[in-house]
Design goal:
CATH architecture of one domain: Orthogonal Bundle
Radius of gyration: 51 Å
Shape: rod-shaped
CATH topology of one domain: Helix Hairpins
Largest sheet: 6 strands, antiparallel, barrel
Strand order of the largest sheet: 1-10-13-12-11-14
Number of strands: 14
Number of helices: 5
CATH class of one domain: Mainly Alpha
Strand content: 15-25%
Mean pLDDT: 83
Length: 369
């Protein structure tokens, strides 16, 4: 019976299966797969050795824009806010209107001072014309006094010999001499009057100069008041979109109060912080591949524009001082500006602050360049 059981067990196991590796089709397929993998590895190695090892990448990169904080230069209460959050604006477009009553009153006061100064000039000019007439009158009086003085002098000279010879009395001669002296005195007084009248013109001209200076000062105040009046209407300095809007109607603002930010989204760029060990072959003008997290797997193209003149640590509020204490070397990063070439649809998504991964192809650049 044992022999019968053994025969039954052998019959159940059946014939032995051949190994798959002895099948020429399977062996050929494995050889082809192995050869393909070797070819792919070789292609990858060749690509890496010729181009891939020259590509420098970093995920420490962010979209940025040269945004401008909008502030007022005058004090006052906000009358109107003319834009909404995230609204697109154009350069010169009104954003906020501040109460303009105080600047307008100052401008009107300065204009009144200008008018007052001009009236002073007109008055001084009229006084000069009046004084010129007075000078002409004084000069005429001086001319008559000179004539009288000469006549009195000739009379006294003529009566002198007559009085000496007894033909005329000494009293008459003394009277002629007194008349000559009086005529000289009158002539001197008229000369002084002419001189005083002429000097009065100089005084009036000085008053005109003073009035003109006051006019210039008042006109400067008018211009300043006009500038302040114009500043009550705050305008956008560039094209962009409104962000971080905190201003409200009725709010009291002072010079320098930040009210909102205008972000030039049409001029965004990327700043990638590459390690200093990646900087050796990087040059301006090299192509870059950009993947923004907000765009998924879509790749954008860019060009290296410039490099920061120092590492990020050098521009920190408290730069490191490695000359004191223990020292641990830390690889520094260099901010690199990259221009983004994106289509209009992608630019609608791009915004300052978004994260990105950047790869720069440094192939062809020599280390000694």
């Amino acid at each position: 019976m044992a022999g019968t059981a053994t025969q039954a067990s052998t019959k159940d196991e059946g014939p032995e299966k051949p190994s798959p590796l002895k099948n020429p089709i399977i062996v050929g397929a494995l050889i082809l797969v192995g050869a393909g993998l070797l070819i792919l590895a070789a292609v990858w190695f060749v690509h890496y050795w010729t181009r891939g090892r020259f590509v420098q990448s970093t995920n420490d990169a962010y979209i940025q824009a040269d945004q401008v904080t909008v502030a007022t230069r005058v004090s006052g209460f906000v009358d109107q806010v003319l834009v909404q959050d995230n609204q697109s604006v154009r350069a010169g477009q009104p954003l906020v209107r501040v109460d303009d009553r105080d600047p307008r009153a100052k401008m009107e006061q300065a204009m009144a001072q200008v008018a007052q100064g001009r009236a002073s000039v007109v008055q001084a000019q009229a006084q000069i014309r009046e004084q010129e007439a007075q000078i002409a009158q004084s000069e005429a009086q001086l001319s008559g006094a000179k004539t009288k003085a000469k006549f009195a002098e000739r009379e006294a000279t003529r009566y002198g010999p007559l009085a000496a010879s007894g033909a005329e009395t000494a009293e008459k001669y003394d009277q002629m001499r007194q008349n000559s002296a009086d005529a000289d005195t009158t002539m001197a007084q008229d000369k002084a009057a002419v001189l005083a009248a002429k000097r009065q013109i100089e005084t009036l001209k000085a008053q005109i100069l003073t009035a003109n200076a006051q006019i210039e000062q008042a006109e400067a105040q008018v211009r300043q008041a006009q500038v302040d009046l114009d500043a009550t209407l705050v305008r956008a300095s560039m094209d962009g979109r409104v962000g971080d809007k905190t201003v409200r109607v009725g709010q009291y603002v002072q010079p320098g109060t930040a009210m909102m930010t205008v972000v030039p989204v049409q001029n965004i760029y990327l700043v990638a912080n590459f390690k200093e060990t990646q900087r050796a072959r990087m040059r301006v003008g090299q192509p870059a591949t950009i993947k923004v997290d907000a765009l998924g797997d879509k790749a954008l193209h860019g060009v290296v524009e410039s490099f920061s003149p120092g590492t990020g640590a050098q521009f920190a509020l408290f730069p490191p001082n490695n000359a004191t204490g223990n020292f641990t070397k830390v690889v520094q990063r260099i901010p690199t500006r990259i221009r983004i070439d994106a289509d209009p649809q992608a630019r609608k998504v791009l915004a300052p602050g978004l994260s990105a991964t950047v790869s720069v192809d440094t192939y062809g650049a020599r280390v000694d360049q």
